[in-house]
Amino acid sequence: MDLIPNLPNHIALECLIRVTYDQFSRVASVCSDWKKEIKLPEFRRLRKTSCRSQKIIVMSQARVDPNRKKSDVIKRFPNPVYRVTLLELDTGNWSELPPLPGFSNGLPMFCQLAAVGLNIVAMGGLDPVTWEVSNSVFVFNFVSGKWHRGADMPGVRRSFYGCASDHDRMVYVAGGHDEDKNALRSAIAYDVEKDEWIQLPDMARQRDECKGIFHDGKFHVIGGYRTEMQGHFEKSIEVFDVAKSQWGDVQEDFLEASTCPRTCTAGSDKDFYTSHKGDVVASKHDKWQAVAKIPAEVCKVAYMTTWQGKLLVIGCARYGEPHMAYVLDLESYKWTKIESQEKFSGHVQSGCYLEI
C-alpha cells in the first residue's frame, strides 16, 4: 500500500522523516503503515543520513520551587522532586516527559537513564518516599508516547552503578553496591527489544560509584572504589569487549586523580573528557591535559556529555543556584551558552544523549 495515496513511497518517506520526534505518537496513530514505518531502524538511519535527526539530552532534573522569590537562589523542596526533561541541542528547546507510572512523587532518586533506539530507559534508584532501593525498569517509547514497565533488574538490589547503552538495543550495568553497602563486581545487560536481562562475567574488581561509558563498541567502567575503601576512588578502568563477551585487563592509572568519575564522557574520536579543578581536561595520547576553562556560571559541574565534536556542561556557580548549560566546540574551544526557562534550571542528577 502507498504510505500516502497518489504519492510514490520515496516521496512519502521524505515527508515522514521531517516529522519531529514529539509528533511520532500522533503520526503512528494515523494508520498502521505509518506506525510500522517509523519503528523501523531504516527509518532512523534515513533521518540521520538526510540530516533530519534530532539531537537530545535526556536528564533527571529537579523541579524548581515555583514560590521562590526571584531575588533568592533556588529553594530546594524538602526532598527534591526529579522528573525527566529533554533539551533539544539544535534548537535549545526544553520540554518534559510524563511521570513514571506509580511515581507521582517524582523519579527514583539517583536512577539511571539510557537511550536505546526510540526508547528512554529509566532504571533503579531510591524510592523518593520510602528511600528503599528499587530494581524497577521503565521504558518510554516515542512512538507510543507512553511509559511501560520493563523486566526488573535481577539479582541484588544495587545502587550507584555504572550504566551505559549501545544506543541500538542494549543497556549495560556494572558495579555499584548492594543494600548492605557492599561494593559489587557483577555486571548485567538489558535487551530492550526482548525485555530480557543477561548475566555478564564479573569485573576483576568491586566498583562502587563508578561511571559507565559505551564507546567504540565496548563498555568502559571507570573508577569507583572497593567496600573497604569507602569513598577513596580508584584511578583504574575496566573495559568489556561486547564482541568477545569478556573483560580486558585492568588499566591502573586511567584517571589523572583519585576522584569521583561522574563527569567522565567519551568524544567521537579516541579522546575522553572530564572536569578537573575548573577545567575541561582531555585524555590525549594517554595523557590528561586541560583544553578549556569552564565558565564561572557552571563551574560546579553536575553533568557533562559529548556529541559530534561538541561538549555540553550543565552546572551552577554555587551550590543551590540555578543550573545553566554551556556548549564547548571541541575544535575552536569556544563556549556558547544555551538559554533556558527558570523551570528548567534545577539540579541535574543523571542524563544521556539521544539522536532520534
Give an account of the 3D structure.
The protein is mainly beta. It has two domains: 1-53, no CATH class; 54-260 and 341-355, Neuraminidase. It contains four helices and 24 strands. It has helices spanning 9-16, 24-28, 32-39, 41-49; strands spanning 55-62, 82-88, 94-96, 112-116, 119-123, 137-141, 146-149, 162-165, 170-174, 187-191, 196-200, 211-215, 218-222, 237-241, 246-247, 265-266, 272-276, 279-284, 287-293, 300-307, 310-316, 324-329, 335-338, 348-355. A hairpin with a 2-residue loop joins strand 20 (300-307) and strand 21. The protein is globular. The two termini are 26 Å apart. 38% of the residues are buried. The mean pLDDT is 93.
What order do the helices and strands come in, and which of them pair?
Blueprint lengths: L8 H8 L7 H5 L3 H8 L1 H9 L5 E8 L19 E7 L5 E3 L15 E5 L2 E5 L13 E5 L4 E4 L12 E4 L4 E5 L12 E5 L4 E5 L10 E5 L2 E5 L14 E5 L4 E2 L17 E2 L5 E5 L2 E6 L2 E7 L6 E8 L2 E7 L7 E6 L5 E4 L9 E8 L1
Antiparallel strand pairs: 1-2, 1-24, 2-3, 4-5, 5-6, 6-7, 8-9, 9-10, 10-11, 12-13, 13-14, 14-15, 16-17, 17-18, 18-19, 20-21, 21-22, 22-23
Compact description:
The chain is mainly beta.
List keywords for this structure.
356 residues; mainly beta; Neuraminidase; 2 domains; four-stranded antiparallel beta sheet; 24 strands; 8% helix; globular
H/E series: HHHHEEEEEEEEEEEEEEEEEEEEEEEE
Kindly state the mean pLDDT as a whole number?
A: 93
Distance between the termini: 26 Å
Q: Which term fits the overall shape? A: globular
Detail the poorly predicted runs. Answer: none
Organism: Acer yangbiense
Protein name: F-box domain-containing protein
InterPro entries: F-box-like_dom_sf (IPR036047), Kelch-typ_b-propeller (IPR015915), Kelch_1 (IPR006652), KMD1-4 (IPR044595)
